[in-house]
What does this fold into?
Amino acid sequence: MKLFLPQSTLEEWAGGDKADVQERALVLSGDSVEYPVEPAVHVKSLVSGPDEHHLLKKVKTDAQLAALGAERLADSVVAGDSAYDVESGYVVQVPDPGGATTETALLADYLLNKL
It folds into this structure.
């Protein structure tokens, strides 16, 4: 299962020594498992131009944006004649919890219900 983890949430977790991203992996304190991450954005609003690439309200990795020819600039993405306001973060790959009460399931539940 892939989940979007906003940078602001990660900073809160890091500040409380709960989690951090190290070498493209999310590491939770007290957990030996590393969860793969990819830099990504959540496209929040269209600032100008048409939504030709249908990015609005979607989560896209940096690789997906590059494939579209889009350019990421701080909290903005420019794709052709369109500009978007985005929230930076990561796409985190976690196993499907399937009712388990593991740290992974708790993380997935938190991310799904907090966002």
